[in-house]
Backbone:
């Protein structure tokens, strides 16, 4: 007799083993998906809900840990699903059962493409987003693209290196950066967006916290709004995104670039960031923004100490569980300097490594300065993921 571990219970390993032992592959896949291990933090809970949850978890063979007003319930997706059937097998209070059901449905229903104002961007392979800062003071590429011609030349190189999207920003959001006024931001961003759209055919995203800049860039052909404030700073931003049908990146930050470093305090960074992003996502959906237009981003470096960024990269599952594609932007950031000892102009290898870690943890969009090195590293991660379930055949 032998006992073999199936790669730590990765569902793809389970599906592959079941299919190799004669199960129909699609049946094997759905059984394996139900076998994925999930741990959910549920809070706030009152005493009645806590007691009911402990009882139901025990009956269902789930682990349950509780404290004052909270519970962690853990087990396979299939067993957790049993908790979410109000009036059926579940004896949980209806509010709790419905909330668990909603969460588990989202978790299993991440769109496979990103809906923008002009197309659907497929996300089966990694989507590389090239950074084009048209600012004098960005921490890495500031001052390099002050003319539209220089911006276009860099954008062409990025397209040749494999960029799928170009992200144009007219404001540096590094800690403590001075904010340009709106007229200046418009002057920097809009002509470059128009030129890239006319010349390159790649989707263009505008990195801005101002609805006026977003609106003007969308008018010039941009199709995505990347808002590092998570649609918080400008009350009109949600309307502009909804009315245009733009894709939107909702990024996590606390405070603003002037105050964020002082707010890098978390109880548990991955679940705190996921919970704060979920609130912003819910507001966006309630405002009428389409679910498949929304991408979530943990905001590496924004109100995060170096260790927070590493923990977030490792525990992106808290974010991917919200049921939206996840973007990460580790490119050349301070935490990579802290890990490698490298200055900002020598962090592309570290950036590519961070992208691969994030890819294996479920991210699918990567905002980077050096497209070529990220694309190459991600090609390996994509190939590993594509080979899951079909190993040995290539
Ligand atoms: N990081 C920066 C700016 N925009 N957008 C998203 N979605 N995610 C990020 O991590 C992110 C972002 C900061 O980096 P950069 O644009 O290179 O620098 P600066 O803000 O100095 O222009």
Residues:
């Amino acid at each position: 007799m032998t006992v073999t571990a199936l790669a730590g219970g990765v569902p793809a390993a389970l599906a592959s083993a079941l299919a190799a032992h004669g199960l129909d592959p699609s049946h094997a896949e759905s059984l394996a998906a139900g076998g994925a291990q999930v741990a959910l933090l549920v809070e706030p809970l009152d005493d009645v809900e806590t007691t009911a949850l402990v009882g139901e978890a025990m009956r269902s063979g789930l682990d349950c840990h509780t404290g004052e007003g909270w519970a962690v319930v853990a087990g396979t997706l299939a067993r957790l699903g049993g908790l979410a059937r109000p009036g059926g097998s579940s004896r949980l209070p209806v509010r709790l059962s419905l909330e668990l059901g909603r969460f588990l449905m989202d978790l299993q229903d991440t769109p496979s493409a990103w809906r923008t104002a002009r197309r659907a961007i497929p996300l089966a392979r990694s989507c590389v987003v090239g950074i084009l800062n048209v600012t004098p003071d960005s921490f890495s590429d500031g001052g390099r693209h002050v003319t539209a011609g220089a911006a276009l030349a860099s954008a062409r190189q990025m397209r040749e290196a494999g960029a799928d999207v170009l992200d144009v920003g007219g404001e540096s959001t590094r800690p403590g950066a001075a904010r340009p006024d709106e007229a200046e931001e418009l002057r920097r961003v809009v002509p470059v967006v128009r030129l890239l759209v006319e010349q390159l055919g790649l989707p263009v995203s505008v990195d801005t916290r101002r609805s006026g800049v977003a609106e003007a860039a969308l008018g010039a052909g941009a199709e995505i709004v990347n808002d590092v404030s998570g649609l918080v700073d400008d009350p009109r931003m949600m309307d502009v995104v909804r009315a245009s049908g733009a894709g939107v990146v909702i990024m996590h930050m606390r405070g603003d670039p002037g105050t964020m470093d002082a707010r890098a305090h978390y109880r548990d960074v991955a679940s705190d960031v996921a919970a704060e992003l979920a609130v912003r996502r819910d507001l966006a959906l309630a405002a009428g923004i389409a679910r498949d237009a929304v991408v979530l981003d943990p905001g590496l470096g924004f109100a995060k100490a170096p260790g927070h960024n590493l923990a977030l990269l490792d525990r992106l599952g808290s974010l991917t569980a919200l049921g939206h594609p996840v973007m990460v932007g580790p490119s050349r950031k301070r935490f990579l300097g802290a890990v490698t000892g490298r200055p900002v102009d020598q962090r592309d290898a570290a950036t590519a490594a961070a992208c691969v870690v994030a890819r294996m943890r479920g991210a699918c969009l990567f905002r980077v300065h050096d497209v070529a090195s990220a694309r190459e590293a991600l090609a390996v991660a994509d190939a590993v993921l594509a080979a899951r379930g079909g190993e040995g055949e290539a």
In short: Residues 131, 133, 135, 138-140, 169, 172-174, 207, 226, 228, 249, 251, 297, 299-300, 327, 329, 331, 367 surround 6-hydroxymethylpterin-diphosphate (CB under 6 Å). The chain has a mean pLDDT of 92.
